[in-house]
Design a protein that fits this description.
single chain, Rossmann fold, six-stranded parallel β-sheet
């Protein structure tokens, strides 16, 4: 079709390949766009990236030799790949996912003379930390305002980004939500509840955390609080950060704390089903955690389970306001215990489909289909 949009989506640094990026590609594909989503893994880690559907690719870019020469070699390879794809395929729209992908998007924009959209997945404080990050944020500030549009995940982020990047137009808000169509699957993988009961037959309630296990998530406090509660178990699933491995070993010494390993994303909704609640907590005072838009929060709701989350603005306006779980002010043992006990007591009075239906009707891409398509494919 001559008028079919050709959309090149670019991700970098751990790919930004969490499900909404892939699902956005699916939404655009379903609306007569030809989509290519290309991500780069710039590390030599053996960790296998999340499975991508046909047409979306993850390219491993070797970062050798070590140090700055390795980083330069890695970046040059990325630029060459993007330049080759831009000249051969001629995209009509480029979407940069995250500030580190902006430099690659600039190359694609220059070579193909296309529209460019920047989806800002992160917020940064005035102190950007490392030199590469400071360079990326400087490019972001100087280039983003020249792009066709800037997008982000919620209203608070939009206000901050408009000020940070000196934008004339307020960024459009596209929620960070996975597709509702994936809320149910036909797979037969056991659930977190079944897994816990194999190890502790007295476990009537299961609090689960599914995601990267690392610092700043109050996982130690969660496990300690549950160790004092009867008939409640914690099931953790996901990759463990290297710097967190020693602390993770201590978590599994608590009674009724179990580690499942990793869950393939296509099985996640089924695996979460039956759990009593999902845990989402972010410590720290930087902008990115204060105004978080975590995928896990949406994934728990889509699977039909309430959420225990810290009281950042989006959670308060979504979870607390609509009684989809409990927001806690701090990760104190009492706050965590009180929240778990309240949810366990209410478990029998609220069926899981209520949470799932709220997600489908209010938080999913489908419920905002017109907004999503107009943001990316106007006219």
């Amino acid at each position: 079709m001559p008028n079919r949009a050709r959309v090149l989506m670019i991700a970098w640094s751990d790919l930004r390949f969490y499900p909404p990026v892939i699902n956005l590609g699916r939404v655009l594909s379903a609306n007569n766009a030809s989509v290519r989503l290309i991500g780069f893994r710039a590390r030599s880690s053996e960790v296998v990236p999340k499975e991508c559907p046909a047409g979306f690719s993850v390219e491993r870019v070797a970062s050798y030799p070590h140090g700055w020469l390795g980083k330069a070699n890695c970046f040059a390879r990325m630029l060459f790949r993007i330049a080759h794809l831009s000249l051969r395929w001629r995209p009509t729209l480029v979407i940069a996912h995250g500030s580190q992908a902006i430099s690659l998007a600039i190359v694609a924009q220059f070579l193909s003379n296309c529209r460019t959209i920047y989806y800002a997945h992160e917020l940064s404080d005035s102190d950007c930390g490392t030199l590469p990050l400071r360079v990326a944020k400087s490019i972001e500030k100087n280039v983003a305002r020249t792009f066709t549009r800037v997008l982000c995940a919620n209203d608070d982020r939009a206000d901050i980004l408009q000020q940070q990047l000196c934008l004339l137009e307020r960024p459009a808000v596209i929620p960070n939500s996975p597709l509702a169509a994936e809320a149910l699957c036909d797979c037969k993988v056991e659930t977190a509840l079944q897994f816990a009961r194999k190890r502790d037959s007295s476990a009537s309630f299961v609090i689960t955390y599914a995601g990267r296990l690392g610092q700043g998530m109050a996982l130690s406090e969660l496990c300690q609080a549950v160790s004092e509660m009867k008939h409640v178990a914690v099931v953790l699933a996901g990759l463990i950060d290297d710097e967190f491995k020693e602390e993770a070993k201590k978590l599994f010494l608590f009674p009724r704390v179990h580690y499942f390993g990793t869950v393939e994303y296509q099985h996640l909704r089924r695996w979460l089903a039956g759990a009593t609640a999902g845990w989402v907590y972010y410590e720290g005072q930087n902008l990115n955690t204060q105004f978080a838009a975590p995928c896990k929060m949406y994934e728990y709701l889509a699977a039909g389970i309430p959420v225990i989350v810290n009281s950042f603005p989006l959670a308060t306006s979504t979870i607390s306001k609509n009684q989809l779980g409990i927001c806690i002010e701090s990760a104190s043992l009492k706050s965590i215990s009180d929240a778990i006990q309240k949810i366990c007591a209410a478990k029998s009075t609220r069926v899981s489909c209520d949470y799932q239906n709220y997600f489908i009707s209010q938080l999913s891409y489908e419920s905002r289909a017109t907004q999503v398509i107009s943001a990316y494919l106007p006219g």
